[in-house]
């Protein structure tokens, strides 16, 4: 007798049975971090302030009043942290380089001591058999450049290309992949329109100008990376997610389509098609960005990979985003929806003929973890990771070319406007002592990778 209920594995059962051998040969598994969120050492070895140092000093910007001045003290504890990464058994580590360490004036002389740190990190990873994956811009713009308008100033795109060249020249082919930008939606819309991230501006025209100059910076930096590191992979990281209509009502369907335009297509279309989406361009009217002749040719530069950060989907009604009834959410209030990752991958493949191979460069969840003795029991994070990996596997089996997956994050860290109150780590950080402790989810990942 067959029982369809038990014969059809539930998503959770499928996820629990998962092993790394289910994935294509050579599939890369890693963990990710970013410079400002973990490094600390804000004033050392010639680092200048970034826009996040300035932003954190403004009252009311960060919910717990904290900053990244010390963070996980990774700048001093990097060797121990690399040992931890190696002990997890991952193939790869994604980290970012702090522009204010490398070019403290934003544009001008290179600070060799800043590059020394990332060279030690790169060589330390290689010595441990872990591939280095570098992100050049994970939001810590030198504050001196913000004084000249930040990303609303076209010159910042050229400054970024020069800084990128300096990093690629020093680290060269030792790095497995260079991503120019992390999540330009966040460093434009969230930063210049919504004002939740540095520099905290609230101006849509400024945000769209920033987004254009970020994309231009990507286009200008890519040839510099290729020139100095011809054997490394080069590409960009976007935060993407399905934007689904809350109902069949035409006004909800329209709102979802508009949200998709602003969140996904505004970045995907220029990069992969060489044009801004016409419907969204019409929606933004006079706030449209200052595009010069030739910009879109530069932006449409071929990429070796597209990095995708996936956390959740949007469910959109005419009045804005809604949480579906019965949805389970993380400590960020984000809906847990692994199916969205499969849907997103299939959609990218269907809609973008020029789509390069994909790496999931971030995926993870914040939960209010508590330490009990030397253990941190975080079953919901393990379930989050395994169900998303399972959803990703379904997309690869349906023919999407996905080459790797990085969990966000290696360890608990400074979660931007939420300070230290949101824990995304597989490794728990006791901020009073800087002790690191593998959560149950880290032990699960370790076992999965064995
Ligand atoms: C992403 C960021 C990353 C981290 C996660 C939770 O948007 O790239 O730095 O904050 O969200």
UniProtKB/TrEMBL annotation:
Q: Which Pfam families match?
A: Glyco_hydro_1 (PF00232)
Gene3D superfamilies reported for this sequence:
Glycosidases
Keyword terms of this UniProt record:
Carbohydrate metabolism, Cellulose degradation, Glycosidase, Hydrolase, Polysaccharide degradation
The organism named in the record is: Deinococcus caeni
Assigned EC number: 3.2.1.21
Q: Which reaction does it catalyse?
A: Hydrolysis of terminal, non-reducing beta-D-glucosyl residues with release of beta-D-glucose
Q: Which InterPro entries match?
A: GH (IPR017853), GH_1_N_CS (IPR033132), Glyco_hydro_1 (IPR001360), Glyco_hydro_1_AS (IPR018120), Glyco_hydro_1_beta-glucosidase (IPR017736)
- Residues annotated as the enzyme's active site: 362
* Top-rank taxon: Bacteria
Similarity remark: Belongs to the glycosyl hydrolase 1 family.
- Tagged with keyword Transcription regulation: no
Q: Does the keyword Hydrolase apply?
A: yes
Write the protein's name. Answer: Beta-glucosidase
């Amino acid at each position: 007798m067959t029982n369809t209920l038990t014969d059809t594995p539930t998503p959770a059962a499928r996820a629990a049975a998962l092993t790394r051998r289910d994935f294509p040969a050579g599939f890369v598994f890693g963990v990710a971090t970013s410079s400002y969120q973990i490094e600390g050492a804000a004033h050392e070895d010639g680092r200048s302030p970034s826009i996040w140092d300035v932003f954190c000093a403004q009252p009311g910007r960060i919910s717990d009043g904290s900053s990244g001045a010390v963070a996980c003290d990774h700048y001093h504890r990097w060797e121990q942290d690399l040992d931890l990464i190696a002990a997890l058994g991952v193939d790869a580590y994604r980290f970012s380089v702090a522009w204010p360490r490398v070019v403290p004036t934003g544009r001008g002389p290179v600070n060799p001591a800043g590059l020394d740190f990332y060279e030690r990190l790169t060589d330390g990873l290689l010595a441990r058999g872990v591939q280095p994956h570098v992100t050049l811009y994970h939001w810590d713009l030198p504050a001196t450049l913000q004084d000249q308008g930040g990303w609303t100033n076209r010159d910042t795109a050229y400054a970024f290309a020069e800084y990128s060249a300096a990093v690629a020249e020093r680290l060269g082919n030792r790095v497995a992949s260079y991503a120019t930008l992390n999540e330009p939606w966040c460093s434009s819309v969230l930063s210049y329109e919504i004002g939740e991230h540095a520099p905290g501006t609230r101006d849509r025209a400024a945000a769209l100008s920033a987004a254009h100059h970020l994309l231009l910076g990507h286009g200008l930096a890519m040839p510099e990376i290729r020139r100095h590191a011809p054997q490394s992979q080069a590409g960009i990281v976007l935060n993407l997610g399905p934007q689904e209509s809350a109902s069949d009502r035409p006004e909800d369907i329209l709102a979802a389509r508009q949200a998709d335009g602003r969140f996904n297509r505004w970045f995907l279309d220029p990069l992969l098609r060489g044009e801004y989406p016409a419907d969204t361009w019409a929606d933004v009217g006079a706030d449209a960005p200052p595009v010069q002749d030739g910009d879109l040719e530069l932006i449409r530069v071929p990429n070796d990979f597209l990095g995708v950060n996936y956390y959740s989907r949007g469910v959109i009604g005419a009045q804005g985003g809604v949480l579906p009834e019965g949805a389970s959410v993380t400590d960020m209030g984000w809906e847990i929806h692994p199916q969205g990752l499969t849907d997103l991958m299939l959609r990218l493949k269907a809609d973008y003929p020029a789509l390069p191979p994909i790496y999931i460069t971030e995926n993870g969840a914040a939960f209010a973890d508590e330490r009990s003795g030397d253990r941190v029991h975080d079953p919901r994070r393990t379930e989050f990771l395994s169900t998303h990996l399972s959803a990703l596997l379904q997309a690869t089996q349906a023919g999407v070319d996905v080459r790797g997956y990085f969990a966000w994050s290696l360890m608990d860290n400074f979660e931007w406007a939420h300070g230290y109150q949101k824990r995304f780590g597989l490794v728990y950080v006791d901020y009073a002592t800087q002790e690191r402790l593998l959560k149950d989810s880290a032990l699960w990942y370790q076992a999965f990778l064995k």
